[in-house]
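Letters spell out the chain; backbone shape is given numerically. Both lines appear below:
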Amino acid sequence: AGGTTSPSLPIGGPEQEPHLLVAGRGLCVLWKPAGWASTFGGSSEDDSQEKLEAHSVGPGQRNLSQQDLTRSKSKSKDWATSLPSWIQEKFSNRPLAFDVQEQFGLVHRLDLQTSGPLLLALDYRTFYAAQLEFVARRVQKYYTCLCHGFVERRGRWRTLNEPLRVERSGGGPPRSVVSAGGRAARTDIFPAAHLSDTGDGSSHFSLLQVQLHTGRMHQIRAHLASI
C-alpha cells in the first residue's frame, strides 16, 4: 500500500461530494459526505467488522458486469449518490472497483448520514492486507457526534460495553438493541462539551468523542440510547 501521490487521481473537491484526501499506489483515503451510501443494494451501516469476523478473507466470487451494472442503475434512484458509483467513475480501469463481493474496494463502511474518511483499496493485495488490519483490530476508529441529553463526564473516558443484538420487527429495517444474549461490544465515550437550546434551557445536548473497539450494527446509537 502507500506510495507517492499521483497527479491524475481526483484529489480535492467540494465537501458535499466524495473526494480523495490521500492518494497512494494501492490505498487511498476517501472523504465520504453525509447522504452518500457506502454500499449499493444493501445496508449502508458500518457492519463490515462483523462480516470480516464471520467470513474468511478471500477473493470475491464475481465482478459486476456491465449488464448487471446497467440493470442495477435502472432499479435505484440512489445510484448517483452511492460511493460505488463514484468509485467506478473515477477508477474505471481498476477491476476491484466493479467487484461486488469485495465492496468495490471499500475496506470498511460508514452510516448513510455519517461523514468521514474511508479507506479505498485499488488492488486486491492491498484490499486483503487492509482488511486483515481490521480483523486483527489494529485500526483505531474515532467519531465526533452531537447527541440529545446531558452525558455526565466521569473521568477521562467512559466505557459502554453492553452486548448488542440485531432485532427485526415487522417489515422495518434491522436495528441493534442492548441484550444480555447479544454479541460483545465496546464503545468508549468522552463528553467534550455540553450545550442547551436558546430558549428555556430545558433541551440539553452533548458533544461526544467516541472510540469504537468493535463494529456492531448501529453500535454508537444503541449504546448511547442505553445510558
